[in-house]
Amino acid sequence: MQLVEHLTQEQVLTIMSRVRFFKRFNHADCLLMLEKSTQLIACRAGEWVLMQDDERDRALYVLLTGQLEVWKDDVHIGDIKPGHCFGEVSFLTKSARSSSIKCQSNAVLFRLQRKTLTEFPIHIREKIKDNIIMLLLDRVKQGPVFKEPAAAPEGDSPFQASKDATYSDDFDMMDDL
The Cyclic nucleotide-binding domain covers which part of the protein (predicted)? Predict the structure, then answer.
């Protein structure tokens, strides 16, 4: 995997605007996310993005282009298509990776580090949280083996945060749900 540095900010914003995970974010939100140390990562077909049981990487990923495979205990259990996110369990709980992710084709990923999330304004954190909640709910409905991960919801959030809501510096989203 390597950092993508050759795209202009406008090119990245254009890609983000086409991906379902970012549909609820306006242009200014996406621009702010890019400025706050989020990263675009390129991977080649056959390359492993995440390894099951890895405890070092706690990032949340959104697939922008390409196709990925999900593996658990050496069994292929599903595929990830552009617009879908993965890595949410480790991102939220600081736990080891629950599955491995392999590139089926060349891919570009949006990577959001846990620590970066605390730097975002609350309305952006709420949209990210809502997307993750909808993803997890969809996965619960699908059962332990899934054909295709859930994508982020479109439109208004089904969850409304209090205007007084705050997050601790040691961000632990599960405590706030």
Answer: 50-120
* Residues 99-142: tens digit of each pLDDT: 999 999 999 999 988 888 888 999 999 998 888 888 788 777 87
| Residue 23 and residue 134 in contact, taking contact as beta carbons nearer than 8 Å | no
For residue 6, CA distances in Å to 9, 10, 40, 52, 158 come to 10, 12, 10, 30, 37
| Cα(47)–Cα(86) distance, integer angstroms | 16
Q: How many domains does the chain have?
A: 1
Instruction: Give backbone dihedrals phi and psi of 15, rounded to 5 degrees, phi first.
Output: -60, -45
145-174 pLDDT, tens digit per residue, is 544 554 555 555 444 443 433 323 333 333
Q: What CATH number is given to the structural domain containing 102?
A: 2.60.120.10
Q: Partners of 41 in the beta sheet?
A: 3, 109
Record the pTM: 0.75
The letter for the amino acid at 140 is: V
